[in-house]
Write a sequence for this structure.
């Protein structure tokens, strides 16, 4: 009975993990292209007060972080760093937009991604512990 419950738990966590992680990874890949190739982002970064080089650096970091989360062969320690960096990035984006008085969508989008990131992390931790039990 315990074994069957553990298998169900693994399947549920696996589904939740891949959906939430996939959404975060796709969002960050799209963000990478937006940061590097959308002229509106140049104006957006100037509006917030960040230098233009930071936009490029952050775009590249988002691509690398998305790859770290999405590729299963990436070591767990690297994934942990990707989660931590995305957490700081999303929370900082929220604060930057909030203190600039930007539109509510600009404030809530990073919070939404932060929520997906937390769901992904929790599902990953449960999946890891359930796999170790089995």
């Amino acid at each position: 009975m315990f074994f069957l419950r553990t298998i169900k738990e693994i399947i549920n966590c696996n589904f939740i993990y891949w959906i939430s992680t996939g959404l975060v990874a796709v969002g960050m890949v799209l963000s990478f292209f937006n940061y590097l190739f959308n002229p509106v982002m140049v104006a957006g970064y100037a509006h917030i007060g960040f230098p233009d080089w930071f936009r490029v650096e952050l775009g590249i970091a988002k691509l690398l972080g998305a790859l770290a989360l999405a590729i299963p062969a990436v070591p767990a320690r690297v994934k942990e760093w990707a989660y931590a960096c995305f957490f700081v990035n999303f929370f900082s984006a929220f604060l930057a937009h909030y203190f600039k008085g930007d539109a509510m969508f600009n404030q809530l989008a990073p919070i939404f991604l932060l929520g997906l990131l937390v769901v992904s992390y929790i599902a990953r931790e449960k999946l890891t512990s359930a796999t170790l039990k089995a």
Remarks:
- The radius of gyration is 17 Å.
- The helical segments are 2-37, 39-48, 52-70, 76-100, 104-133.
